[in-house]
Amino acid sequence: MNAEVRPIKTAAETALATSFAAVKRALPGPAAVGALREDAFRRFETEGLPHRRVEEWKYTDLRALMREAKPLAGLPDAAAKARARAALATLAAVDARHIVFVDGALVPELSDLGRLEAGLTIRSMAQALAAGDRDLLAHLGRLVPTDDVAVALNTAFMGDGALIHVAPGAALAQPIHLVFVNSGSEAASVFARSLVVIEDGARAMLLESHVGCSQASEHQVNAVLELKVGDAAHVDHVKITGEDAGALHVSTLLAAVGAHARFNEFLFTTGGGIVRNQVFVRFGGEGTVAGIRGATLLKGRQHADTTLVAEHAAAECTSREVFKSVLDGEGRSVFQGKIIVCPHAQKTDAKMATHALLLSDTAEADNKPELEIFADDVQCGHGATSGALDQELLFYLKARGIPAKEAEALLIQAFVGEAVEGIEHAGLRDALIDRVVAWLKARE
Which of 337, 353, 345 is nearest to 378 (CA)? Predict the structure, then answer.
């Protein structure tokens, strides 16, 4: 007789099950969306929170790190909006169309929703779900299928977010900036879901910022962005994570890229207690060129995990992946990058590199680049390095009269700048360099 073995559920898993049962009927969407939610939550119940025995999550044991599940965030009140307005002032350096979400809900009075450029449509995800939008349902969860548990949990609880459409051939002169502000009024969880469809031949730049208003806040964020890049389109996506020191932040990008497109992705992380940025990119058409880069700056006991899967499913595509991490105190960075070359993706040119700079003896960098190649006519490679500042370079600068702290800051800024300089937008590039300088000054 075989006894059935059932894993013991954690307090967080039990709380999530109780919360879903209580709110599922109130979540936006018709029966088809409800069925999608139920199916996703069943997947989560079967697998539970990801843990160290799951290879993709071995360095970020969410079951151990997520001691409890915070209640779902409510609609923001006037005080929360006021705190969000103050936080927005720090993002004014880049001229962009701001679409603002406070505690996961779209706030029209803080957003630039008027006078949209020709070919641009912006809607609330919650409203589109409630209306049962057919175009939305045709794309939702279908661009880059994944069995990731964090995505399943987001699908079950998904609330508000942005639904953006850029018409064929349209060229947006101004970046679109999705700003997710957590007001910090109380510890809560947010499940944001956005869908952006950039049609053939269009050009657009999408910024995504996650910011907090209180260093003491312990909010939990699970955000998913689905992005469709049409044939011959040119799309840049930059994600900035500047959460509160106690925040737990899990974010996933699911990007399906067409043929002869240009796609640039950049991840910039300085905030949050525990951060995991997941990027799943599928190159489904021939002749696409992509640059996927990132920079992470950590101090204290911050933990940031970047997990990337770049699937080359078509021939003659080129991709470059470059990630830099700077770690101080007991900061820990994780990079898991995998390039997959499918059998018919001949003449793929893909190279991945990750570099970590450790400023203290207690900092830790875990790098795991991988290649899975099923074609024979390819050029692929990967590399990883980690170490301290070059003492010879440091001595060279100090020998020329530059103070030790300033010399160290110059070397760190140059190290991170190699990744940041890949951003095409000059204003945003300068703004991020300014953030690097601010991080260095705060470290002093």
Answer: 345
Q: Is 253 helix (H, G, I), strand (E, B) or coil?
A: strand
Show the domain range for 204: 11-283
> Amino acid identity of 91?
L
Q: Which of 247, 263, 283 is the last residue of a domain?
A: 283
* pLDDT tens for each residue of 63-76: 999 999 999 999 99
Amino acid at 66: M
Contact 354, 327 (CB under 8 A): no
What distance in Å separates the CA atoms of residue 242 and residue 217, rounded to the nearest whole number? 13
The verdict on residue 288 lying in a domain is: no
> Is residue 374 domain-resident?
no
Concatenate the DSSP letters of all residues of 87-103 into one string. Answer: HHGGGTTS--EEEEEET
**pLDDT, mean over the chain:** 93
User: What is the model's pTM?
Assistant: 0.95
**Which amino acid would we find at residue 213?**
C
- Compute CA distances 192 → 51, 86, 178, 355, 356, whole Å: 23, 22, 11, 31, 30
What are the distances in angstroms from CA 202 to CA 136, 166, 170, 320?
19, 7, 5, 22
CA distance 429 to 417: 9
Last residue of a domain, one of 263, 283, 303: 283
Measured CA to CA, the distance from residue 358 to residue 369 in angstroms comes to: 19
Helix (H) and strand (E) counts in the chain = 10, 19
The CA dihedral of 123, 129, 134, 138, to the nearest 10 degrees, is: 100
pLDDT for 90 equals: 66
Residue 218 confidence (pLDDT): 87
Residue 216 burial class via C-beta count within 10 angstroms: exposed 0-12, middle 13-18, buried 19 and up: exposed
Region for residue 104 given its phi and psi (left: phi exceeds 0; alpha: psi -120 to 50; beta: otherwise)? left
What is the total count of domains within the chain? 2
Task: For residue range 270-295, list pLDDT tens digits in order.
Answer: 999 999 999 999 999 999 999 999 99
Interior CA angle at 91 toward 248 and 192, to 5°? 40
